[in-house]
Each structure stands twice: as C-alpha cells, then as structure tokens.
Amino acid sequence: MNTTRYPLLAVLLVMLLFAACNPKEETPVASGGSATDYFTTLKILNAKQSQIYDYHLPDKDENRALIQLNEERLRLACLNATGSGDALRAVRDNAGNLSREQMLQVYNSLDAKTKRSQLGKSMKAYVEKKAVLVGDALPHFDGVGPDGKPFDWSVTDGKRILLIYEGWGWIKRSTHTWFKDLLSATDRDSLAIVAYVYAGSLAELQKRVKSFQLEPYLVISDLQGKEGPLDKKMGVHGIPTYYYTDEQGVVRRIVAGFDPDRFTMETGLSPKWGESLGPFVEK
Question: What is the enclosing helix (H) or strand (E) of 195?
C-alpha cells in the first residue's frame, strides 16, 4: 500500500484552495465593441462576482474586490451607453461614481428616442437636480406605503428621522437586527425610521416588504423601481445610504454603508442608548 500519496494529495488540495481564495489580478475585460460583446463581458463579470462570494473572503478583501468589479461594470457601461438599454441603466445605477459633467456627456450622446425614454429622463434629472446635502431639509418626496395609500410625511413631524435608503438585499441579518433593536429601544415620539424601497409596482413593494421583514418601519416607495430620478435627487452614491435629521427635519448626517461603530459615531444613534438617542456629534 502506497502511503506517500496521501501527503501529496493533501499538499495539492492546499495549493488548490490557496489559488481559489487568492485570485490573480486580471486585466480589465471591458471592451467598447458590439452589444454581443457587452452581454458576453457582463456575463463574465457576473460570474466573477459569484466567485467572490464563494471565496468567503474577509470583509475588507471582499469589499475591495466588489468595488473593483463595480468599477469594471461602470467602465463597460460607459463604453456601451448608447448601444444598449442595460448598459445605459448601468451608467444610471452607478451615477454616484460619475461627475455631473460625465453624466451630461453620456446624456448628450443619446439619440432622441432614448432621451424621451424613462431611462433618458432619469439621466436628465440626475444631471439637472441638486443632491441633498447636510444642512438641507429632508425632501418629502411623493410615494406610497405597502397599503397603496400616499405616504403621509406628517407622521414624522417633530421627530428625528432616520431614512434608510434601500440596500435591503445587501444589509446583513445582524444589521437588520441592530435597527429593529434601535426601533424597539426608542420612543415612537422621538424617532421615526423610514424605509425607502425600490419597487416598480405595488405588488413588488408588498413582496419586498414581506421578504425583508420591513413591517416595523414606515415604508415608502415611489414605485419607479431603479428607473426614477430619486437616487440622484437624494445624492445617493451607494446603497444603503442613511439620512438622519433633527426634530425640524434638517439633515444632520448622511452615512453610506453600515458599520455599527462608525454609524453610532456619525449619528449618535445606538440601541443601547434607548430614548436618549444620543447627541449629534458636531465636527
């Protein structure tokens, strides 16, 4: 019986695992060719994203890999913006990585029919509208709740508002628990947590509310899916984005992404503080 094969197999297995978890850097795969090239390349990028998730990388390495992948998608989309609706949508969805001038350049390259489309109108709104900044009043944009009735912003009057802007598919389970604990520990007269949800129809909104268990929050959607101009009006650079206001509805903090310690430092909110809410930490 040959016992030497087992150590060799173990070494080979370790080498394969190391190679899988440490993918080599590759040259960009985006090209400015035909629509077929675009979809083929997009398929490759989507496969790479699946591989990143399968590698179970540390958070920082995974975030870095996903950022690089999204930059590649954006470059691909910009090169193909006038040739594909999906590519144009990718430009719109990654608008936070583009300057207003770059967005205007892409918009001006569109044909008249595309400019009249919902995507074209959305891009135009991105270029023309001023994003929400700290010190601005939180916009009371039009939308509906899961019951189909117009969202009533008056329920937030006199309260601090935490608007959680989308990202429900990206927010970790522990983060969902963190916000629900915050809601449970806080007096309803002190803090209103508003959950904005992408949805193209009322049925889709209701499905997403149930899927992500958003019932405890005040839920609102403009029912324009990802096609509407609200992202740019709000100045969203990534999802989730959090807008935190004072009792007068003035935005005091805007936080992109979620890390409990950073979020608490930026907003003064923490479940363990309960009704005190904590102070606004001025810089």
Answer: strand 191-196
> By C-alpha distance, which of 249, 222, 282 is closest to 162?
249
Q: What is the DSSP letter of 190?
A: T
In this structure, the number of other CB atoms found within 10 A of the CB of residue 260 comes to: 13
Give residue for tokens 């608008």.
Answer: 95
More confident residue, 227 or 178: 178
- Between 237 and 233, the higher pLDDT residue: 233
For residue 220 the two structure tokens come to 């609102």
Among 213, 219, 175, which Cα is nearest to 198's? 219
User: Can you tell me the distance from the alpha carbon of 131 to that of 215, in angstroms, rounded to the nearest whole number?
Assistant: 29
How many alpha carbons lie under 13 Å from residue 153 in its C-beta half-sphere? 14
Give CA–CA dist 227/150, Å, rounded: 20
Model-wide pTM > 0.70: no
Q: What is the dihedral of CA 276, 209, 123, 64, to 10 degrees?
A: 70
pLDDT of residue 16: 40
- How wide is the angle at C-alpha 193 spanned by C-alphas 224 and 250, nearest 5°? 85
Phi, psi for 152 (deg, rounded to 5) = -100, 100
Query: Could you name the CATH architecture of 153-276?
Result: 3-Layer(aba) Sandwich (3.40)
Q: What local confidence, expressed as pLDDT, does residue 7 receive? A: 53
Single out the residue of 282, 250, 268, 254 nearest to residue 135, CA to CA: 250
